[in-house]
Amino acid sequence: MLNTFLLFSLLQLNTGAVNGLSEVTVETDSKILPVMQVTSSRETVNYSASSSLAVISAAELALELPTHPNEIFDRIPGVWISRGSGQEHLTAIRSPVLTGAGACGAFMVLEDQVPTRPAGFCNVNQLFEVNVAQAGRIDVLRGPGTVIYGSNALHGAISVFTPGPQASAADAVSSAFSLQLGGDNYYRGQIAMSSDTLAVQAGYTDAKSFRDDERYQQGLFNFQALHSVGKARGRTSFAYASLDQDTAGFILGKDAYKDSTLRRQNLNPDAFRKAWASRLSSRWNWQADNGDSLELIPYLRSSRMDFLQHFLPGTPLETNGQDSFGLLTSWSNERSLSAGIDLEWTQGFLQEFQENVLNGGSAFLNETRPQGYHYDYDVAATMAAVWFQWQHDFSSELELTTGLRAEYLAYDYDNKMLDGNTRDDGSECGFGGCLYTRPADRTDSFSNISPELKLSYQLPSEQLLYLRAARGYRAPQATELYRLQRGQLVVDLKPVTLDSLEFGYKGSAENISYELIAYFMRKENFIFRDANGFNVGDGKSRHRGIEAQFHWQMSAQLALNSNLSWAENSYDFNRDLGFSGVISRGNEIDTAPPWLGAIRLNWQAHENQQYEAEWVYQGGYFLDAGNAFTYPGHALFNLRAALTFADGSHQLSLRMNNVFDRRYAERADFAFGNYRYFPGRGRWLSLEWQYRR
Predict the structure, then answer these.
(1) 3-class SS at 385?
(2) If phi over 0 gives left and psi between -120 and 50 gives alpha, with beta otherwise, what is residue 119?
(3) Helix (H, G, I), strand (E, B) or coil at 264
(4) What is the per-residue DSSP string for 174-188?
(5) Under a CB-based contact definition with an 8 Å cutoff, are residues 678 and 667 in contact?
(6) Which of 160-174, 276-290, 536-550 has the lowest mean pLDDT?
């Protein structure tokens, strides 16, 4: 039996339909921990009590009204979505905020069980491609992914599920329209419509900022349809996202985020990002009379992006895109044995072009960063994987789950320019050659085996102990292999691996539920740029931490929820990085707050009135590899209210973020001799009107 104990927060899962085909049922009268039953084979593999899976519900999303992913994921311990400019962000799940060409490969983002990006072609801002605010629910797995995840679920996975059609009368159509107005000229409109077989969600945002020349327009559209052929049931999903953003970069100077003038500055007024992404998938389920089930998910994806690299001298324009298709399969035998095969093919490209001659820097910069094309290449990628999971009950209390995934990823790289580090016309740069290096055509392949083992023991009084050991991995990303610098013509990179051991204790009483988890992880072969500017892959790090969640239903109207995490992320090797600093074994990794936490008090004053007070804390952290510079951390206080009128068709939602107008930094670091900050937004008020019928 799969015992499942999910997140202790405002969310309380009720019996009902979730995501169309996936029925989620919590047995509240059980004498053991709640049991989650799901009809989707891949979800069944995931939903085990013996893991740190957390869920953000549609109710939480509706109350939070997130304008950015940063605002909703602080409900989960050990997770930080670091807010950048507009919809830009960096992700941390049991990790530091990771930067670099392929660092985004440490986290997998999925929509309706399908990864939003091909293996090897990640995007650090990939959450702007999914409709977080209108999701049916969001699952977050902290730590290495289970066997159904492949390369990129190294530190964790974020799965966004669209709401899907809702059960209703055959001819009935439910709909909701909303308009949200906020400070700094923030406007967002949303619409959702659903019948028993079709559903649509769409939103459009036009937002300016407290910073100069910073704004974005974002459009999101989702469609789902249920259908069946004979004994097969299907659910088809289509998603489209677009972003047109005028970007603001770092502000500079120690404590610049506190200065009323500096925090509004945009030192990169010409910076922009324009992108779109589309995805189509169809999930089909067959249930045999003997209890066996088969699931097939074919999918298509496409994306394009242009953005000005304002953080580089010469501000070159990057254009990239990917087209991919694949098939996810799974078979299960009454949940004791599950297995599957995953296949994927991708065609990607990248171009980088510098329009103007650089003449404002040093002679070295001016000479080594030439006008013209720097890169122009295509990469075809093929991925094939096979996985299985087996479960055995030794007794009614003791359960073993074990699994294995084997994956193969191959790249075929085609350089469409001259090989080497010349200018695009073949002329040589001074100072030993141009910065940008283009390797010759080549092929690369990577193989990985990822085991997982879980033991869970059911204690009396609805308590559970578990142990989970797992290995996560990610293949080198295409940009790490083929976007080289400083004359490096060949890279010898291995897959990054993360070995994790996790201990968990979960329990619930009459009005209280709680979770306590400790983990230890060791990462090898992580990829970084050394003092020569070469991509190398011999980094090592250690990660350990404690995560806690607590929910107390103090009365029928009042509930207290809290989450807290402590982590230590440290280097496990020595290296002089030149201008980037010196890495010493035992030093803490930069941009890795040891403490993250939040407390929320929820008051259901009346069935039509809900209020929430939230305190969010982020501890101080180091800004550099040498641990010489620090950011002190901050705490923010937020208020929310949702008022539904008597007829139930109209609702007003108010929210005030940063009530005490705290001056803080969304993210801080120290580089190139400067403190650098993304300043946080001051006190911010918004009002949303919603009409439902």
Answers:
(1) strand
(2) beta
(3) helix
(4) EEEEEEEEETTTEEE
(5) yes
(6) 160-174
Q: What's the rounded mean pLDDT across residues 502-518?
A: 94
Closest by alpha carbon to 393, among 338, 309, 457, 343?
A: 457
Number of CB atoms found within 10 A of residue 330's CB: 26
Short-list 69, 85, 580, 71, CA closest to 307: 85
pLDDT reported for residue 607? 82
The pairing of strands 107-111 and 156-161 is parallel
Helix (H) or strand (E) holding 365: helix 363-368
Spatial separation of the C-alpha atoms in residues 621 and 346, rounded to whole Å: 39
What is the distance, to the nearest Å, from the Cα of residue 619 to the centroid of all Cα atoms in its chain?
21
What is residue 641's three-state secondary structure? strand
Q: DSSP labels for 114-175?
A: EESS-TT---TTGGGGS--TT-SEEEEEESS--TT--TT-SSEEEEEE--------TT--EE
Average per-residue pLDDT for the chain: 91
355 in Cβ contact with 309 (< 8 Å): no
Q: Find out whether 308 and 315 touch, Cβ atoms under 8 Å.
A: yes
Q: Stretch 597-617: mean pLDDT, rounded?
A: 94
pLDDT in tens, 540-592: 999 999 999 999 999 999 999 999 999 999 999 999 887 778 899 999 999 99
Of the listed ranges 37-46, 368-377, 597-606, the least confidently predicted one is: 37-46
Residues 6+ apart with CB under 8 A from 349: 320, 321, 322, 377, 378, 379
Tell the CATH superfamily of the 16-317+329-375+397-677 domain. Answer: TonB-dependent receptor, beta-barrel domain (2.40.170.20)
Residue 50 pLDDT greater than 90, yes or no: no
Angle (nearest 5°) at CA 638 between 633 and 639: 170
Closest CA to 449 of 381, 411, 401, 497: 497
Q: What is the mean pLDDT of residues 415-427?
A: 96
Pairing between strand 442-459 and 463-474? antiparallel
Burial 554-563 (b: 16+ CB within 10 A, else e): eeeeebebbb
The answer to whether the beta carbons of residues 510 and 497 sit under 8 Å apart is no
Q: What is the mean predicted confidence (pLDDT) over 623-643?
A: 96
What distance in Å separates the CA atoms of residue 226 and residue 235, rounded to the nearest whole number? 5
How much is the average pLDDT of 324-334? Answer: 94
Domain range annotation of the chain: 16-317+329-375+397-677
